[in-house]
Specification:
Layout (H helix, E strand, L loop, with lengths): L2 H4 L11 E2 L9 H9 L25 E10 L14 E7 L10 E2 L2 E3 L7 H13 L6 E6 L3 E3 L4 E10 L13 E8 H5 L4 E5 L5 E7 L2 E3 L1 H13 L11 E3 H7 L10 H9 L48
Length: 316
């Protein structure tokens, strides 16, 4: 493994938009090409942080964050499709958490002052959440950061190849309910793919895994990755399910709520990017009367529970 990719003390620290040049299996060539030519990034909502990267409109400080998008699979498989043993590392956040409870997510979190950058932050968070040994990970790219205006986060996905897979699991049950290495081919199976739509009209991709639903920021990254790499199988983009009913019937245990103010802002904001992450040709729609049936947040509370690949909410 290249020291440049993973060693915080190395001369070059990868930043958003960097390709490390670390060798990878042949089956990952299409994905790396998509990360290089911009086709991956072009499938995601495009919003940029304020030039000063300071507090947002409600005074929330800007923060950089990173998530680890970690793939494993046979090093000798030629591709272009992922091999049967290809997997992706995901976590199920504890349903008892105050924020983002019950969601399926990549390991990740905020970049600390002691981190050299997004790579060290993503690997550190993955170790803290799953026990992952970073020595077995080859960092291939730091993808362009995605800006989430409501939380004022700039999130950099760190793409890695799990060269030496190891046993991982829950480190802190108060934070993580389950750690999973999900087969990529299961996520690609058309039977496990659909769209979710909120009453405001927000629409995003989703994947079924056992009794869990992968959606929001995580599903958007996966969908964009699969499509841009040419791994997608034809699936029914007309299968659009109600977001809240689907989550209520799942095993996620999410405490999902959208305030009337969020619904109003999402429906009225002329700058909101209507891109449905990773699903070209589909746009979020915004229904009239979006406030109806939407829960109101307590006075003084800033709501942060819009779906995460919606550019108006916080990181999921």
């Amino acid at each position: 493994m290249s020291e440049t990719a993973n060693d915080p003390a190395s001369r070059h620290v990868p930043r958003p938009g960097d390709i490390t040049g670390v060798p990878h299996p042949g089956w990952m060539d299409p994905l790396m090409a998509a990360c290089t030519d911009g086709s991956f990034d072009g499938l995601l909502p495009q919003r940029k942080p304020p030039a000063h990267r300071g507090p947002n409109e409600v005074g929330r400080p800007h923060r950089d964050a990173a998530v680890l998008v970690l793939l494993s699979g046979s090093p000798d498989a030629p591709g272009p499709q992922p091999p049967e043993d290809a997997r992706v590392l995901l976590t199920h956040r504890a349903p008892t958490l105050r924020n983002h409870s019950g969601q399926i997510s990549f390991p990740g979190g905020g970049v600390d002052d002691t981190d050299s950058g997004p790579v060290e932050a993503a690997l550190r968070e993955a170790w803290e959440e799953t026990g992952l040994d970073p020595a077995g990970v080859d960092v291939l790219a730091v993808l362009p950061e995605l800006y989430i205006p409501v939380s004022n986060y700039s999130v950099a996905p760190v793409l890695g190849y799990w060269r030496e897979p190891m046993e991982v699991g829950v480190v802190d049950p108060g934070e993580t309910a389950r750690v999973m290495t999900v087969p990529v081919n299961e996520l690609l199976d058309p039977a496990n793919r659909f769209l979710l739509r909120h009453t405001t009209g927000w629409t995003g991709p989703a994947f079924q895994h056992d009794d869990l639903v992968v959606w929001g920021f995580t599903a958007g990254i996966l969908a964009a990755m699969f499509y841009s790499a040419g791994w997608d199988l034809e699936w029914d983009t007309d299968d659009i399910r109600d977001l809240e009913k689907t989550l209520a019937a799942s095993g996620n245990g999410e405490q999902h709520r959208m305030s009337a103010e969020e619904a109003r802002r999402e429906s009225a904001d002329p700058l909101a990017d209507r891109t449905v992450a990773g699903v070209p040709g589909v746009k979020s729609g915004h229904a009239a009367g979006a406030d109806e049936g939407v829960e109101t947040a307590p006075d003084g509370e800033e709501p942060l529970d819009l779906p995460a690949d919606n550019p108006r909410r916080g990181l999921r």
